[in-house]
Specification:
The chain is α+β, with helices and mostly antiparallel strands. It is built from eleven helices and 20 strands. The radius of gyration is 23 Å and the shape is globular.
């Protein structure tokens, strides 16, 4: 969910005095292909980083940065290699990583830089997974179709995958709506494919599924950087209308399953004209955007065992910044936010402070800080299933699910809510229940959650 919290954490990163250097022989090309994993020190804690590198023709590389804890996925990464020196540049994250390759240890040892803030980072190599990729999986027992559909409201097209069960149909169908940030159709977070797993499970059990790449991802047009939560409703409406045009789909049984912010988007679509027939909310947000972001910041810092006094100080500082962004016109807010960044980091270049202030003043953030999902629920009349996990740290059930179920059940009798023991925000079960593959535990979608979703959807079609 923390679409831009990564920036705030990096501004508080512990600077390193000098880059650690390993004795590295020169000569053969560096074997970069694979996954490079390490930790970035931030505010007394650490963030797990993964950079995926795939060799291309002509000695070039395709690379992407993933920060699972912050839901940053597939951030384009430029690779430059000179001898045993490697430079990884991530313009989308405002960061770069300069390192030297240790052939003996198969490690990259270097400095992570964002603006004037630097931190030592060690990246260790592991081979690229081969068993979970689409190139090695067996053909599924259902039909897959690459599709493109238009959003006339935003004047863009979205690309996705429609999966249709075997048989004649027409089948009930769902549209999958992702959480915050630019995500692909599979909801990829490292080795975990949340939306892909959900789509596969449902399609194998008689439910057609449309999942699509977010704006600016794959062949989808537009950009998530300029799209507010409210604007994304038209994407869901366009997806539902596309399904209504398909002969394989039961036009009266088309629903939406949303995760995180996507759950709120699906609920907004349910309160608009031509709504979905039902909505499944997976870890939907029930607090205002500002409350949600501040709660996430506190939760993360507590997990990193930051001193309580520092947590409170950071909370007050961040709340002040959010209030400025919400209540002040953009030029003035840009100046104030840039000044706050320089006060926190006196060595920060004034131009760099302006650049980072602009990154914090996006249309999405300006809308989301004032957004109250509860205010959108009074028009929702279709059946709703609210699901949250008891181990969700980003949208704790006691806060978010409680708020959603209280409001929805007061206006909509067709609302069901469940708390799933041990399930986290990504709807993964405890790690002890993950799949063991090649000696490693692989993340998976909670089987309990999958069964609950399927049974509820199927039950809606049973005449009583």
């Amino acid at each position: 969910m923390n679409r831009y919290f990564f920036w705030a954490l990096l501004w508080l990163a512990v600077p390193c005095a000098a880059q650690a250097r390993a004795a590295v022989p020169t000569g053969d090309n560096i074997p970069l292909a694979g996954l490079w994993k390490g930790k970035l020190t931030v505010l007394g804690g650490q963030l797990d980083l993964t950079i995926s590198v795939v060799p291309l023709a002509g000695g070039k590389y395709f690379a992407a940065l993933d920060v699972p804890a912050q839901k940053m996925t597939r951030v384009p990464t430029e690779v430059t290699v000179r001898g045993d020196s490697v430079l990884l540049a991530m313009p989308g994250a405002g960061s770069r990583y300069a390192a030297r390759f240790d052939r003996e240890k198969n490690e990259l040892n270097g400095t992570w830089t964002q603006g004037t803030v630097k931190s030592a980072v060690l990246l260790k190599h592991s081979p690229m997974p081969t068993l979970n990729g689409p190139s090695t999986r067996l053909a599924p027992p259902y039909r897959e179709e690459e599709v493109t559909f238009s959003n006339p409201v935003s004047r863009l097209s979205l690309s996705g995958m429609l999966t249709v069960p075997a048989g004649q149909g027409p089948f009930p169908a769902v549209v999958l709506v992702s959480d915050v940030g630019a995500q692909d159709r599979d909801g990829t977070f490292g080795d975990y494919h949340m939306m892909g797993s959900l789509a596969d499970y449902l399609t194998r059990r008689g439910i057609a599924v449309l999942r699509y790449d977010d704006r600016g991802v794959g062949k989808s047009g537009g950009s998530t950087a300029t799209a507010t939560t409210a604007m994304l409703v038209s994407d869901v409406q366009a997806a539902i209308n596309f399904l209504r045009s398909r002969l394989e789909v039961n036009i009266s049984r088309i629903g939406a399953i949303g995760h995180g912010e996507g759950a709120d988007v699906a609920l907004m679509a349910a309160g608009a004209p031509l709504p979905p027939a039902f909505v499944v909310s997976l870890a939907g947000y029930g607090l205002t955007g500002e409350q949600t972001l501040l709660q996430q910041q506190v939760t993360e810092q507590r997990a990193q065992k930051v001193d309580p006094a520092k947590i409170q100080a950071a909370y007050e500082r961040q709340r002040t910044m959010y209030d400025i962004i919400r209540q002040t016109n953009e030029p003035q807010a840009k100046s104030i936010v840039a000044n706050m960044l320089r006060q926190d980091h006196p060595d920060l270049d004034p131009k760099e402070a302006q650049v980072q202030a602009v990154k914090l003043l996006t249309p999405w953030r300006h809308f989301f800080l004032s957004y109250d999902p509860i205010a959108e629920l009074d028009q929702v009349a279709c059946p709703v299933l609210l699901l949250s996990g008891t181990d969700d740290q980003e949208a704790p059930a006691d806060l978010h699910l409680t708020a959603l179920e209280k409001e929805l059940k007061s206006v909509n009798r067709a609302t069901v809510s469940k708390r799933l023991a041990g399930v986290n925000h990504l709807f993964q079960p405890p790690k002890t229940e993950w799949t063991l593959m090649n000696g490693e535990m692989k993340p998976m979608f909670s089987p309990v959650a999958l069964d609950v979703i399927r049974e509820w959807i199927v039950g809606l079609g049973v005449k009583k």
